[in-house]
Design brief:
It is a single chain. By secondary structure, the protein is an alpha/beta fold. About 55% of the residues lie in helices and about 5% in strands. It is built from 40 helices and 14 strands.
């Protein structure tokens, strides 16, 4: 790209303005670094402002607002930018020339699973963005952290509030549709009527952008397509009368994106600009832009999307929402398969095309892909026909399975458009129409929408779950061909204890015929047992000692008159599942191997015990000395006393049994401490009360994050000194800690707990109870 001269920033402070600002600085005891951190800008920008140098107008206004100075009172230098009104001849002329092109280019969009393009305004669901540089994690990611409190706005609010936006989002989150919607609204005078919308897919100008600047590339596109005079376009940009919508920063080479960020200052700064990019592919920092991230769909947005999809049959939308909520645990809470437009599309296809409504996630995939690959030969932004020879449904599935299997071990599951990769995937390009690697993958992307471009010359499946599903299908083929060899590959430690393979194991277990599934589960258990027996001896001893303590606690649940009736019933009807929950807890009292107590959530009966055990742990560690004595627990207040104390708190017990996660249980304890501070140690209540204000601010942004933060605080302070307070009434009966001091044992047991959780999660409802009992016997 030819470099252009950087334009002059918009505003500077007058001499009197600089003097006034410096006086306020001294009076308030401000520093440049402190102001820069507060406003989220570079320190050098504050320095330029205080020296009376020109800076970007938006930053100038933000600094003045912070100092409580009307910016108009101290601004000097560049005159205010004259703007066209809606009725100005230039804007009217440009709109007339652009309108047909914008309406054709942006007015309709091809949706995966629909047989014709749909009007954007008919299908668009209002997005929400999170302003700031903190990105929400994917569902299921344990490292859910938000580093900065930010502002949530709907898309149109963000555009109106911030003149320069860098919008990030996951694949299929609606970035392109959002920009097309903005362009359409603008050209029709419904949004920002004083400017002219210019929509550009950066991928379309990637080649000319290597030799030309951005304005020249835009001028050529709009000159050829709608006869817009380059001189008029330049005038519009110079006058700040453009809404520039640049789609797909991730679809051009990194070097071009860097040049775009560095050299197009004078094209950007007077106008409104929105640039979109996939979250994972974002590499550029646009210093004068506000960064925003598209948020996952809320329940209201999901319902709005369903109404758009089923607008011809409104009753179907109601039925779809009822079905979605009925199967919430399968594809809402755990997997968030209704969080983006792409994923909701898949669910709508499965629901609409199936004679019998799918009840499981793999059935949803199977029905949707059979519809997409079988009946249709197109997807998102697709041509009328593909040049790839694969024609039948099975041929297409084989192609996708082959690619998925070869690409799954790549970092981030992103694979290159190279002959080496396709050769590794056993794909002969000569058979595939003689295409180049890039042409071949682009054809796949255009034809089906299941594989999508991730960055320059690299591709990925449009959703990780799709990739996992096709890998599982590929491995099922291998199991059917040579079961022993396939199991040898599948159950090696590289795959068995790798969380990236969790969903693949789950898919395989759900899709195998019952007879082969039994062999799969038995092999799984044997590999786990062999692993524990053959690794660090301290790990095995930890599990054995935990089992001994668990026997005493199980006896307490069964015999104590205050224990919950539901818990006693579970021990009678599901003895092995109940025992596994308790034994897993006793072998990991300090939360080192299974911090989230995931294994307790695998079974429906798990919460009957795990929640009480976790609360007892919290009470054991944090009750003050007076409440301990008042419990008449004897000289030592042990874990059994704490468990009985939990059973006696009826209100707390009722709430506890309605919760779904261990984080929620700990958060419940946190709130209980604040409500009853006199019962707890001074260290505990002071530590918790000191965090209340921060948590209140966090709750405004994310209730889920508030729960996680409370859980962390409880975990931090719940570290009992077991030498001082022996457990279960005797020093002989302590929760085992041997493995905690041996790094090799910690790794072994972390892997073992993970593997046991995965094994338990692989059971399906169709498998007989005796088989489950047989597999589970002896895990802990």
């Amino acid at each position: 790209m030819a470099s252009s001269n950087r334009g002059k920033p918009a505003l500077q402070a007058s001499a009197k303005g600089v003097e006034q600002a410096q006086q306020i600085f001294k009076r308030k005891g401000l520093t440049r670094q402190g102001m820069a951190q507060t406003l989220g800008i570079d320190r050098s920008v504050v320095g330029k402002f205080l020296r009376g140098e020109k800076i970007w107008s938006q930053k100038f206004e933000e600094i003045c607002d912070f100092l409580e100075i009307p910016w108009q009172d101290i601004a000097e230098g560049m005159a205010p930018t004259p703007q066209f009104s809606q009725g100005s001849p230039e804007v009217r002329k440009a709109r007339q020339q652009l309108q047909d092109y914008i309406e054709q280019r942006c007015g309709a969009i091809r949706i995966l699973g629909m047989d014709k393009a749909q009007p954007v305004e008919a299908i668009y669901t209002q997005l929400r963005v999170l302003q700031g540089d903190s990105i929400y994690p994917l569902a299921g990611n344990d490292t859910q952290t938000i580093t900065k409190l930010t502002e949530s706005l709907n898309g149109k609010e963000a555009i109106e509030k911030y003149s320069h936006l860098h919008i990030l989002g996951l694949p299929g989150s609606g970035k392109t549709t959002f920009l097309k919607y903005l362009a359409l609204q603008c050209v029709q005078g419904k949004l920002m009527p004083e400017v002219v919308p210019i929509f550009v897919a950066l991928r379309d100008i990637a080649q000319p952008l290597k030799q030309q600047d951005l304005l020249t590339c835009i001028s050529e596109v709009y000159g050829k397509t709608c006869g817009l005079d380059p001189a008029l376009l330049r005038q519009l940009f110079d006058q700040g009368a453009v809404l520039l919508l640049l789609d797909g920063e991730d679809e051009i080479p990194v070097a071009q994106a860097q040049t775009l960020a560095l050299t197009e200052f004078d094209l950007f700064y007077k106008n409104r600009v929105v640039i979109t990019c996939r979250t994972a592919a974002s590499r550029q920092v646009y210093e004068q832009f506000t960064q925003a991230t598209i948020q996952q769909f809320t329940d209201n947005q999901i319902e709005e999307f369903a109404q758009h999809w089923f607008r011809a049959t409104p009753d179907q939308a109601t039925s779809f929402m009822a079905w979605l909520n009925t199967n919430k645990a399968d594809f809402r809470d755990s997997f968030d398969l209704a969080s983006t437009p792409l994923l909701l599309t898949l669910l709508c296809i499965a629901f609409e095309s199936a004679r019998e409504k799918p009840q499981k996630r793999h059935q949803i995939y199977e029905m949707a892909f059979e519809h997409i690959l079988g009946d249709l030969n197109y997807g998102h932004m697709l041509p009328a026909a593909t040049v790839i020879p694969a024609q039948t449904y099975q041929e297409k599935m084989t192609l996708l399975k082959t690619i998925a299997r070869a690409a799954f071990d790549y970092d981030d599951k992103v694979f290159p458009a190279s002959r080496a990769f396709l050769s590794h995937a056993s794909i002969d390009l000569e058979i595939q129409g003689g295409l180049s690697p890039t042409e071949f993958l682009r054809e796949l992307e255009a034809s089906y929408g299941i594989i999508t471009q991730d960055s320059w010359n690299h591709y990925r499946f449009s959703h990780l779950s799709f990739h996992e599903y096709f890998v599982a299908l590929a491995l099922l083929d291998e199991i059917n061909t040579d079961t022993e060899a396939a199991f040898s590959v599948l159950f090696n430690e590289t795959h068995l204890f790798n969380s990236a393979w969790y969903e693949v194991f789950w898919f395989i277990a759900q899709m195998l015929p019952l007879q082969k599934a039994e062999g799969f589960l038995e092999t799984f258990k044997t590999r786990l047992s062999d692993y524990l027996q053959g690794q660090d001896p301290q790990a095995l001893e930890q599990v054995q000692e935990g089992g001994e303590i668990a026997t005493r606690i199980i006896h307490l649940f069964k015999t104590h008159r205050s224990s919950p009736t539901s818990a006693r019933q579970s021990l009678d009807t599901h003895p092995i599942q109940s025992a596994i929950t308790i034994r897993a807890f006793c072998s990991d009292y300090y939360y080192r191997f299974d911090p989230a107590r995931r294994i307790s959530r695998v079974f429906d009966v798990g919460y009957q015990f795990s929640h009480d055990l976790v609360l007892a742990h919290c009470f054991k560690c944090n009750l003050g000395p007076v409440p301990k004595r008042s419990l008449k627990a004897g000289k030592n207040f042990d874990f059994a006393d704490a468990l009985v104390h939990v059973w006696h708190q009826q209100e707390l017990q009722q709430q506890n049994q309605t919760l779904e996660t261990i984080d929620e249980v700990r958060a419940l304890f946190f709130d209980y401490v604040l409500q009853h501070p006199d019962q707890f140690s001074p260290v505990c209540r002071q530590y918790f009360s000191g965090e209340v204000r921060r948590l209140e601010e966090l709750a405004k942004l994310s209730k889920r994050q508030e729960i996680i933060e409370k859980s962390k605080l409880v975990a931090d302070i719940s570290n009992p000194d077991q030498e001082e307070h022996p457990f279960l009434g005797s020093k002989k009966f302590r929760f085992p800690t041997l493995a905690y001091d041996h790094p090799e044992a910690v790794i072994t047991l972390s892997n073992y707990y993970y593997g046991c959780t995965l094994l338990c999660d692989c059971f399906s409802a169709e498998q007989a109870l005796p088989l489950q009992q047989k597999i589970l016997q002896g895990l802990f």
